[in-house]
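Q: For a teaching handout, I want to show students what a protein-ligand complex looks like in token form. Below are the inputs, and the small molecule is uracil. Please produce the holo structure.
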Amino acid sequence: MSEPERLQKVLARVGFGSRRVCEDLIADGRVQINGAVAELGARIDWERDRVAVDGVDIGVAPDLVHYVLNKPAGVVTTASDPEGRPTVVGLVPAEPRVFPVGRLDIATEGLLLLTNDGELANRLTHPSHGVEKEYLAHVEGTVDGGGLRTLRDGVELEDGMTAPAKVSQPEPGVLRITIHEGRNRQVRRMCEAVGHPVRRLVRVRIGALRDASLRPGEWRELSSAEVRALVE
Ligand code: URA
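A: Here is the structure, written as tokens, with uracil included.
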């Protein structure tokens, strides 16, 4: 038997939103454990209990799948969107059911992992693992030396200083930024803080994983070597 976990934590991990959002889902009576409406504070045994949201089972199939998607702009990084906008989950096979690992803003493009492997997702999103994510940010204007230094050293944001980042400007107004934190809208907020709002943002690398051959909206399965490289 696995260690019982708080329901909102499990829901958050499989992509239903922040823990707060997941608590609201539970409080609204939209989550069931073994067919009965779940109470806030419930714990589940991931291996034994069947959890459903709006009647749809979130349990993982025994076969683990890992996809990398080139997310187009205009698609939301959730399993289901109450406003009915297109979702990243809608771009990959419906079965087995997968969920996005971390999130990209609706306007952000580029590489996104989707999997039914809760353990891997947990490891990749846990701040202590600090997996590198590399972005190309097309910004307004050309960033001068002082701006680049600030982005590298750390930017004061409303939720605190950012950790040191790798930042270069391969051409005027295009920044290559590598961060290992996963704060909300972090790259956009960093660039805005130095006076260069982002016009277009593309994630080009997650850990060791790159793929310049996928067109927007295309996905492929990761090889087991790629999955291992991500974890390492
Ligand atoms: N930083 C952002 O600002 N947006 C993203 O989607 C990812 C990183």
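A: Two things your students might notice: The chain has six helices and 16 strands. The helical segments are 7-13, 19-27, 118-125, 145-153, 186-193, 224-231.
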